[in-house]
Structures are given as C-alpha cells and as structure tokens.
Design goal:
- By secondary structure, this protein is an alpha/beta fold.
- The protein has 2 domains: 152 residues, Beta Barrel (Lyase, Ornithine Decarboxylase, Chain A, domain 1); 171 residues, TIM Barrel, CATH 3.20.20.10.
- The strands form 3 sheets. Strands 4, 14, 15, 16, 17, 18, 19, 20 and 21 form a 9-stranded mixed sheet that branches. Strands 5-6-7-8-9-11-12-13 form an 8-stranded parallel beta barrel, surrounded by 6 helices.
- Bound molecules: ligand LLP.
- Ligand LLP binds next to helix 10 and helix 11.
Length: 420
C-alpha cells in the first residue's frame, strides 16, 4: 500500500502532483513518500509488538539522510554494513542500542568505529573476522558484542544474485561449523557472544524459506544455551519481498511475524529484523522525461532522460518495474514499446515489450517501486551526475539530495603532474 495515486489525470505523491515537482526540480529525480515509508515501518512495529523486538532498517536499500531521519525518529534502528553507513547513522542520531553491524568484509577501521560508537552487536561472518574483532576490541580495552551469521543452506527461491543463504554463497558461517566457532568465540577474552544472526536473501515472496531457516537456527539456539551461552538476540535479517507487478502478492509483515513468532514461541529473546526493501521499495518512484520516441525496424523505443546508471535493477536482475504516465491522456493509443535510457549499452532499459500509453516527446513518466536499491545503487556512468532526491510530506515537498553537477564529478580528478 502506498500513497502514489491519480487524482483526475495527474499522478500525485501524497498531496503533491508529480508534474509540479518536475517543474520545480527538473528531471530525472527520485520522489519518496514519507507517509508510505512510515506506514511500512509501522506495519513491522505492530506485527512484532507482542515480543521484545528491534526493527533495524537496512540502510543499504536507501541511505538518504532524510529517510533515515524519518525512520529513526519513529522508532526504527538501523542495520549498517560500512563505516559510511555508520556515519549516516550517527548523523541522524540513531542510538547505539538500535544499530546492528552486518557485512562480510568489515575492515579493522570499521570495526573500531563501530565499537567506539557502540552497537547492539557485530554480525560476524567468518573465523578470521572473529579474531579480528577480538583483536580490535582488545586494542580498545572493550568486549565486543557479537553474533555469528549462520548460513543455513536454505534456498530462498529468489533471483540468484540476491540469494545469500546457500552453501555456494559467500555469506555467513556454515551451519555445521557454527557450534565449534561459537565455542571458540566464548573463549576469547574481548568478545562476548550475545546473538545469532541469519539472513537468507532478498525479495522473498514465500514464507517457507524463512521458516526453514528459522527451524535450523532454533536448533542451534538450544545447543548454545545448553552450553551456557547467554543468547539474547536473534537477528532474522531482512528479505521480505514487495509487489513489483499487479499480480505479486508477497506475505505481509504481519504474516511474516506470525510465522516467526510461532517458531519462537517459548524463546526469551529480542527479535531483530533488518527489512530494507519492504519499508522503502514502494515508497519511491523515479520520475523521468521522454526525450524521444523512436521507431526501430522491429520495435518502438521510448528514450527517457533517466538511464541504467540511475536505476540499475532492470539491467542487473532483469527486474520488473511498473511504468506510469505522470499525466494520463485517454485520447492516445496504447503501444508496445521498450522504455530505454540514454546510456551506451543495450542493457540500458526500464521495460521491454511493454504495453504502454502512447508517450510523446516531453511527457513525464514514473518508474515505480524504485525506492529500494534505486538511488543507492546509482552511479556516474557515462559521466552523468546523479539525480536529485525529493521527499514529500503531505502537501509539502523538499529536495533531500541536490542534483549533482558535472563540476562535482570532476572535482577529485587531476592530470598526471609534470612537464607537458
Ligand atoms: N540484511 C542483510 C544482511 C542484507 O544483506 C540485506 C540485503 C538486508 C538485510 C536487506 O534486505 P531486504 O529487506 O532489502 O531484502 N540490490 C538488490 C538487493 C540486494 C540485497 C542485499 N542485502 C536488489 O535491488 O534487488
């Protein structure tokens, strides 16, 4: 459920017409609905209210400070994966007891920064990382709270690029080696074992893999407790899918909660969740202008001023994103066309062979469900400055990230010094 809707023929974000924003900020731009964002957060908070829990929004999905600020002010914690994301968490004043630090390649400097600021726990992904965390904590004279990220070897049945809980994936510690490594962790002087972590993939549209992973983890929990370890946190990761197309019907946060809580009935634990996409995905759209309408020999192309550098998901995962006109016109005939960008790659597309309204040069369109892994994965490929980000709150909108300039792009570069 989101707050993008037509009123008359114009597409609105909450109470603001998107063509009005386009007029003011130019195109392309990302537009986020704060009300949608907070509604999705609330759905998680309510779903888990019967148990002690933390909703640690996964910053990588969309790390704009205004988004983080809105979520943190409404009670969310944050799941971070880098020193940069830690700084963002600090900027919006996220309390240490609401931050988890995940990621497969934490550097010593990042571990030091996290321990200095304080976090609920570091989700450790390898034996080598465990020793590094211990050493860094020793240097600081502290004990680092850790969980081990377990790879349960469960098939999340999602796109192979975004599954993480299979044996062949680089993530986590194999389930079979978990007990041994936990035992080792509990012997280290500067580490304190506080949790178990598991994240199996993203855009999961079925509850079965979550349940399967949880059953494996629960077995481990009892063993760890029997061995005297005080496991206080169970981090079940993120991964809940969202509807990208009209027919998609992924489980709701309430259904996910019911499945998780049924599995965990008698466990005295704080449950941590790391949702990213489910909170921000459908709270954002990418707004672009049609530059050209072009007829190829076999196909029609709608060339927009946004490209794969702005939204990579269709190119990278062949992901489906809905396309809507910002102003509906019923006098135009529908056409089957590709919506493409200006980048010099055949993979630069937002939609292929899609039945669309008859767009014309100068029209505005939106690419839907672009709030998650949209701007955060964008790049400057083809020397294109990254687009502006706008947030709407009711009847007001504000630029929450200015459009980059070409000057900024070139700022860090210099010619090889020396005689010409
Ligand atoms: N926790 C961990 C440890 C993760 O690796 C991720 C996502 C999340 C939480 C949040 O997952 P979510 O709730 O958003 O599914 N770029 C891809 C998705 C990559 C997901 C990476 N990890 C895409 O655009 O589909």
């Amino acid at each position: 459920m989101d707050y993008f809707h037509y009123s008359g023929d114009r597409l609105y974000c909450e109470e603001v017409a998107l063509d009005r924003i386009a007029e003011a900020v130019g195109t392309p731009f990302y537009c986020y609905s704060e009300r949608t964002l907070l509604r999705h957060l609330r759905a998680f908070q309510e779903a888990f209210r019967a148990v002690d829990h933390r909703i640690c929004y996964s910053v990588k999905a969309n790390s704009n400070l205004a988004i983080l600020d809105a979520l943190v002010r409404h009670g969310a914690g944050l799941d971070i994966v880098s020193g940069g994301e830690l700084e963002r968490a600090q900027r919006v004043g996220c309390p240490a007891e609401r931050i988890v630090f995940s990621g497969v390649g934490k550097s010593a400097a990042e571990i030091r920064a996290a321990l200095t600021h304080g976090v609920i726990m570091l989700n450790v992904e390898s034996e080598a990382e465990l020793y590094r965390v211990n050493a860094v904590a020793a240097g600081l004279g502290v004990r680092a709270p850790v969980a081990l990220r377990i790879n349960p070897d469960v098939n999340p049945r999602t796109h192979p690029h975004i599954s993480t809980g299979l044996k062949r994936n680089k993530f986590g510690i194999p389930h079979g080696r978990a007990i041994a490594l936990y035992t080792e962790a509990s012997r280290l002087a500067n580490v304190v074992v506080v949790g178990v972590d598991c994240h199996i993939g993203s855009q999961l549209t079925d509850l079965a893999p979550f349940i399967e992973a949880l059953r494996r983890v629960r077995g481990l929990l009892s063993q760890l407790r029997a061995a005297g370890m005080d496991i206080r946190y169970l981090d079940v990761g993120g991964g809940l899918g969202i509807p990208y197309g009209e027919e998609d019907a992924p489980p709701s946060p309430a259904q996910l909660a019911e499945a998780i809580l049924t599995e965990l009935r008698e466990e005295a634990l704080t449950v941590i969740l790391e949702p990213g996409r489910a909170i921000v995905g459908n709270a954002g759209v990418l707004v672009a202008r049609v530059e050209y309408v072009k007829s190829g020999e076999e196909k029609q192309f709608i060339v927009t001023d946004a490209g794969m550098n702005d939204l990579l998901r269709p190119s990278l995962y062949n992901a489906y994103h809905g396309i809507l006109p910002v102003v509906r016109r019923f006098d135009r005939e529908e056409v089957t066309a590709d919506v493409v960008g200006p980048i010099c790659e055949s993979g630069d597309f937002f939609a292929r062979d899609r039945l669309l309204p008859g767009f014309q040069e100068g029209d505005l369109l939106v690419v839907r469900s672009a709030g998650a892994y949209g701007f955060s994965m964008s790049s400057n490929y083809n020397s294109r400055p990254r687009v502006a980000e706008v947030m709407v709150r009711g009847e007001r909108f504000a630029i929450v990230r200015r459009r980059e300039s070409v000057r900024q792009l070139l700022e860090n570069e210099q010619l090889f010094p020396g005689e010409a």
